[in-house]
Amino acid sequence: MTRSLTIEDAAIVTSDDVGTVHPRGWVHVVGNEIVGVGAGEPPPSARTADEVITARGCAVMPGMVNGHTHLFQTLFRGLGDDKSLLDWLRDYIWPAASVMTPAEIAAATAVGIIENLRTGATTVIDHQYLHPGGAHDDAVLETADRLGVRFLLARGWADRNYEPRLTETVPEVLERTSAVARRWHGAGDGRIRVETAPLIPWGCSDEAVRAATAASRSWGAGMHVHCAETAVEVEMNLQERGMRHVHWLDSLGVLGPDTQLAHSVWLDSDEIDLVAARGATVVHCPVSNMYLASGVAPIPEMLRRGVSVALASDGPGSNNRQDLFEAMKVAVLLQKVHHLDPVILQPEHALHMATRGGARAAGLGDRIGAIEAGRLADLVVVDLNSVFVAPVHRVVSALVFNVTPREVRHVVVDGRLVMRDRDLLVADEQAELRAAVQCCRELFERAGLGQPLRLD
Question: Which part of the chain is the Amidohydrolase-related domain (predicted)?
Fold first, then answer.
């Protein structure tokens, strides 16, 4: 039976084309779709919904999209401290990731998804590149389906110049990615989707990038790739291929509206124009870029030239959190201090990146990312009547600069309440956490990398 939900008596931050905010309004959901939104009192049809949540003192916002993460890294928090990207990969990621079991990646994924839901991200793009035994993708996707999140598996791979235990041949990439897509693309009533994700330019051959992207597009998906994250990687591509990353991708015919370019810190002016012309999306990871000292992405210039920008946490191993409220705040403040310009990036820009930009990155630009009739009901209810937030003069400013995960009260994904009054409804959170910590102990003991602090 189709159920209905109304959230009333709250500030409604629609994130629509003109940034409408109703200081006091309502949202009506039937099944998995928003059927009405407005100011003031809800109409009678909305007031007779199966469940009515009165959210006085709260704001309702679109569920955010975490446009780039690596959920397996939930077990790797803190291990990237004070390291460059390449040193971090060599010292920690490769040794442990190469021996990670499907059960361990499932446990890490569960905690990572719960963290995303608790921080207001209802859609996650997981750049998952661990395939040492062949069953890891299914373990990740089964977990995502069970926890009710909207999920895009960016099935990562490298076919050269990478850790041998994590390298696949071109035929393996094509066969395995296509098989995962056949099993999972469109599962969970459409919540679960699969695309290809070349890991890094220096780890991927031209042949493999072309073939994998064509395969992904054959089932209606796109392509996700790390792009120009560090200056060193750009120089590597120049020396080998004679092209910067964006020009290289375009030369292969894979740059388009369904392409997500994670990081894009070191794009030059020509590359920015090319990304805009092709309609690709840049996925900005400001906290990770600061954490690994990768650089400051030219986000204001990208926006000025018409590039669509999404927002992301990056993996827990290089952040060490997955918190898009934090990412919104850092994204704005980083540009202000970098340019010494207090108005160069504003809270509204950050909210747009986390919602509308993320929706476009996920291939759902007309389905999620805003509170409008006809869109899917991915909603987050945030408590503004908090000592950390109130008084509120500008709601969007409060969401970007004040709100933290502790203010997230209710979360709705695809019309279903997955968190009510801060209680997770889709899993036993403490049991999931205990399982992940135990998996971490066993994994790091096998890899010879020491043990996490005991917390029990």
Answer: 60-418
Helices 102-118, 429-447: inter-axial angle, 10-degree rounding: 130
* Tokens of residue 375, six digits: 């869109």
d(CA 12, CA 304) in angstroms, rounded, equals 27
pTM above 0.85, yes or no: yes
Q: What is the 3-state secondary structure (H, E, C) of 224-259?
A: EEEECCCHHHHHHHHHHHCCCHHHHHHHCCCCCCCE
Q: Per-residue DSSP letters for 144-174?
A: HHHHT-EEEEEEEE--SSS-GGG---HHHHH
Nearest C-alpha neighbor of 159 from the set 214, 197, 113: 197
SS3 letters across 368-398: CCCCCCCCECCEEEEECCCCCCCCCCCHHHH
* Euclidean distance between CA atoms 297 and 190, whole angstroms: 33
Helices and strands in the chain, H and E counts: 17, 17
Element (H, E) at 281: strand 281-284
For residue 47, CA distances in Å to 29, 103, 240, 267, 371 come to: 11, 44, 63, 50, 18
Domains plus CATH for the chain? 4-63+369-424 (2.30.40.10), 64-361 (3.20.20.140)
The secondary structure of 34-98 as a DSSP string is: EEEEEESSPPHHHHTSSEEEE-TTEEEEEPEEEEEE-GGGGGGTTTTTT--HHHHIIIIIHHHHT
Helix axes 206-218, 170-184, angle to 10 degrees: 20
Q: If we measure between CA atoms, which residue out of 43, 39, 50 comes closest to residue 9?
A: 39
Residue by residue, pLDDT tens for the chain (456 residues) are 799 999 999 999 999 999 999 999 999 999 999 999 999 999 999 999 999 999 999 999 999 999 999 999 999 898 878 887 778 788 888 888 888 999 999 999 999 999 999 999 999 999 999 987 779 999 999 999 999 999 999 999 999 999 898 999 999 999 999 999 999 999 999 999 999 999 999 999 999 999 999 999 999 999 999 999 999 999 999 999 999 999 999 999 999 999 999 999 999 999 999 999 999 999 999 999 999 999 999 999 999 999 999 999 999 999 999 999 999 999 999 999 999 999 999 999 999 999 999 999 999 999 999 999 999 999 999 999 999 999 999 999 999 999 999 999 999 999 999 999 999 999 999 999 999 999 999 998 888 877 777 766
Residue 342: HSE in the Cβ half-sphere, 13 Å Cα cutoff: 0
Distance between CA atoms of 358 and 350, rounded to whole angstroms? 11
Q: Do 165 and 129 contact (CB within 8 A), yes or no?
A: no
